[in-house]
Design a protein that fits this description.
alpha+beta; 20 helices; six-stranded antiparallel β-sheet; 28 strands; single chain; five-stranded antiparallel β-sheet; 841 residues; elongated
């Protein structure tokens, strides 16, 4: 059946026609896909443009709010003036519905909408973010508390010079006005929409009336969820309100956590393509039919020509002169085929050059012999210095447009690549030859075969200077942070997302009592702490660091008592805050530790002493009150004068006790401020001890204590203010008498090797606990085992007076072995020898 040329030609044309029809259908399908991809790209570009406009609009509102907030800060504009100023700002904005000046506690101080005055926004997430340190916080779509209308809140922080929050400008943005400003109008039935973090539709262009619940679209639109998660997405979707299928694209707005979506109806895009597809298939079918008919005709003509050729050959074989040979012009058809092939090759070459000419990567093709430019695209020319950016480098040698190419080794490297078959590639190559300074390249060069058996050098270059400098800046910032952490007096620890400590400063190690690096988990996976207020153990998950990692929110300062690695305890103020990456994910946390052990001890001692002082003042005041009342009730009679004298004596004694307490407080304040006046004079140590003992003798006798004195012979006089030193001896010795129930109190003086005199007051009392001994001379300090009430000022005053004389004071004690308080005073300078004539005058 297929043995003839006509049948084979007919079959071949038939198959070609079928292939042509299939190819037409394939081209139409690819065209449909290309158009769909073009629409998706168009949707992406529209969404990106709208996202950029949205960011710019939010930034504009924030900047205007910041300026307005600084005008309102500090209460310079109040009441109706502030409301009028806010109303004018609303009219000038174009997108803001109302403006409110909010105090740090969330209370509205002034508003352009009188209905919002004194409304509290304390529970708003935007205000909490400002309190946590953000400069600007954009909320999601909410209902206005004044009228229930949908609004978007943009909160802008106003801070004082110390960085504390003074207030916030809360701008309620109208979604429809915002849409009119940032969303473009699309041709046909296309739309653009803004979606907040919760997946709720904020605004749409063109506008579509939607109930509040119908605005929640993230649950039904996967690409919106993907964009809210931080990734661009494109694909088909169902429109809100149950509309027809649409082609859509959504892009994230990372700064706000929102997304922008752009759509086009799928049917509107497919309708013309379907018509084109139908027409293409019909046309291809018609062409196929015509081709089959033509092949039949051509086959018949070819068969006849071949038969004529056969007869011609037969005639030649018979020696007959054949007639003229007629038939198709094969040579002309072959020339036409070659011309068509040349046209296709030329078109392919032009496409290749266009692709490389517009590529973002610099491409340079060199003659390997002279390193002369054969071709360079625009991206490479833009990489060079002037004047080559405008004039180009066609035909120039490498050294002519790359200064210092020889010194940098580029010429030798290119010749080495040209001589071999090995390509060269560098991720970061430093080049210092340009006038604009040092540049960094990512580049590669290889030798490739060219037409005619020759070779070309092809260089591909991308400038990475900005990336290298950004990395260097990051490294410099890291070193600065480490330097700050080293000198910071507050302990700082940084942890990864799993809670493992990855960095700690020296202050943190000092607070924990450890010089070595922290082991992973050594702090927060052991029971090493308890709450300072209740004493409840702090579980590993209750640390501020772990809570900040779990919740993603900052944790305020909490008082925690820790067991340090050296075995001691300390009370710290512990806070933490999460660390987020560029997409808002929690990747770690930082925690701070402030050692407040001594501060809490001082506060506790102060409170105890205030109780003592109030008690000591209340007792003599009661005596004064009772004595005065007794005097008013005193009847006339022979004993009236004696009774009045006794009452007056009691009043005087009470007054002296109050005056003594006040004098102690004033003396301590005078000592600490350095204003105490001193009148030093030479004094005999033995006389000082004797006079101090006389003041204590009656109190010691009343308790049955022995009072002993001991002064080494030949002691030099000391230079001191006699009354102040007697006050020191009185304060220390009276404490010794009060603390001793039996035994003796001894006062002694002896010489010291450096010429000073040491005074010692020993008792046989219960001694001072080891924990209290370092603090006995502290202000308001009373021993935990003291059996009497006192102001806690006597020893503090004694220390101040001794140090004011240039001496020092210390205490030695052991529980059950009594206490010895010692202090030194400098010896008086010897009087100068008088001349003989002055001595006899």
């Amino acid at each position: 059946m297929l043995r003839t040329i006509r049948s084979r030609l007919f079959l071949l044309v038939g198959l070609a026609s079928l292939a042509f029809v299939a190819l037409g259908a394939l081209v139409s399908v690819r065209s449909l896909r290309a158009r769909a991809e073009g629409e998706q790209l168009s949707n992406l570009e529209v969404a990106r443009t709208a996202a950029a406009a949205l960011r710019a609009q939010v930034d504009g509102v924030a900047r205007a709010s910041a300026v307005l907030g600084h005008a309102l800060e500090g209460g310079r504009i109040l009441g109706e003036d502030a409301a009028r100023l806010l109303a004018v700002a609303v009219r000038d904005s174009g997108v803001v519905r109302d403006l409110s000046w909010v105090a740090p506690d969330g209370q509205v101080v002034a508003s352009s909408d009188a209905r919002l005055h004194e409304v509290s926004f304390a529970d708003r997430a935007e205000l909490r973010r400002l309190l946590a340190g953000d400069a600007v916080a954009v909320g999601d779509l909410v209902r206005n508390p004044a009228d229930g209308a949908p609004v978007v809140a943009i909160a802008t922080a106003v801070r004082d010079g110390a960085g504390r929050l003074s207030g916030a400008l809360l701008a309620a943005v109208d979604p429809e006005r915002l849409a009119a400003r940032v969303l473009p109008d699309r041709e046909g039935e296309g739309s653009v929409a803004i979606v907040d973090r919760t997946g709720r539709l904020v605004a749409r262009a063109p506008a579509m009336p939607l109930a509040w619940d119908e605005r929640l679209i993230a649950g039904t639109q996967d690409l919106v969820r993907a964009a809210l998660a931080g990734a661009e997405a494109a694909g088909p979707m169902r429109a809100e309100g149950g509309g027809p299928a649409r082609l859509a694209a959504a892009v994230p707005v990372p700064e706000l956590g929102w997304a922008v979506r752009a759509t086009q109806p799928r049917a509107a895009m497919l309708a013309p393509m379907r018509r084109e597809l139908a027409l293409g298939v019909a046309g291809a079918g018609l062409v196929a039919l015509v081709a089959l008919g033509a092949s039949w005709v051509v086959g018949a003509h070819t068969s006849r020509a071949l038969r004529r050729l056969e007869r011609h050959a037969a005639a030649l074989g018979r020696g007959e002169a054949p007639g003229p040979l007629t038939g198709p012009d094969e040579v002309i058809r072959l020339g036409a085929a070659y011309a068509q092939m040349a046209r296709h090759l030329d078109a392919a070459r032009r496409r290749f050059e266009a692709a490389f000419a517009e590529a973002p990567v610099g491409v340079l093709i060199l003659d390997p012999a002279e390193l002369r430019v054969r071709w360079a695209n625009q991206a490479y020319v833009a990489f060079l210095d002037a004047p080559f950016r405008g004039a180009g480098v066609q035909g120039l040698r490498l050294e002519e447009f790359l200064p210092r190419a020889h010194e940098a080794g580029l010429v030798a490297l290119l010749r080495e690549v040209a001589a071999g078959d090995v390509a060269h590639e560098e991720q970061e190559y430093r080049y210092d030859g340009f006038a604009r300074g040092t540049t960094w390249w990512r580049w590669s060069v290889r030798a490739v075969e060219s037409g005619g058996g020759g070779r070309d050098l092809v260089l591909m270059i991308t400038e990475v200077t900005e990336q290298v400098r950004a990395r260097e800046q990051v490294e410099a910032d890291r070193r600065r942070l480490e330097a700050v952490l080293r000198v910071l007096p507050v302990g700082v620890l940084m942890a990864d997302a799993g809670g493992q400590v990855v960095q700690a400063n020296d202050a943190a190690r000092r607070i924990w009592g450890s010089r070595a690096p922290f082991r992973p988990g050594a702090l927060y996976r052991e029971q090493r702490a308890r709450r300072a207020d209740s004493g409840a153990p702090l579980a590993p998950g209750d640390w501020a660091l772990q809570r900040a990692l779990r919740s993603g929110e900052a944790v305020g300062g909490e008082l925690v008592e820790i067991d340090r690695f050296d075995g001691t305890q300390a009370v710290v103020l512990n806070g933490a805050a999460p660390i987020r990456d560029g997409e808002g994910r929690v990747v770690g946390a930082v925690t701070t530790l402030l050692d407040v052990t001594e501060l809490r001890r001082a506060v506790r001692n102060r409170d105890e002493v205030l109780q003592v002082v109030s008690h000591d003042l209340r007792t003599p005041l009661s005596a004064v009150t009772l004595g005065a009342a007794a005097l008013t009730r005193l009847a006339d009679g022979p004993d009236a004068a004696a009774q009045a004298r006794r009452a007056a004596a009691r009043l005087a004694a009470a007054g002296r006790r109050m005056n003594r307490l006040i004098d102690d407080l004033l003396d301590l304040e005078t000592l600490e401020e350095g204003r105490l006046s001193m009148r030093p004079e030479p004094c005999d140590p033995a006389d000082l001890l004797g006079e101090a003992a006389d003041q204590l003798r009656e109190a010691a006798r009343a308790k049955g204590l022995d009072l002993c004195l001991s002064a080494a012979p030949g002691l030099p006089p000391v230079a001191c203010d006699r009354d102040r030193v007697l006050q020191v001896l009185g304060n220390v010795a009276s404490n010794a008498v009060k603390a001793t129930e039996e035994g003796a109190v001894c006062l002694a003086a002896e010489a010291q090797g450096d010429g000073a005199v040491v005074f010692r007051i020993r008792d046989t009392g219960p001694g001072i606990p080891d924990a209290d001994l370092p603090h006995v001379f502290d202000r308001f300090q009373r021993g935990s085992a003291a059996r009497w009430r006192g102001s806690g000022l006597g020893l503090a005053i004694a220390r101040g007076l001794v140090e004011a004389h240039g001496g020092r004071i210390w205490a030695e004690s052991a529980p059950g072995a009594g206490t010895t308080v010692s202090f030194t005073l400098p010896a008086a300078a010897p009087a100068p020898d008088l001349p003989a004539h002055a001595a006899t005058a």
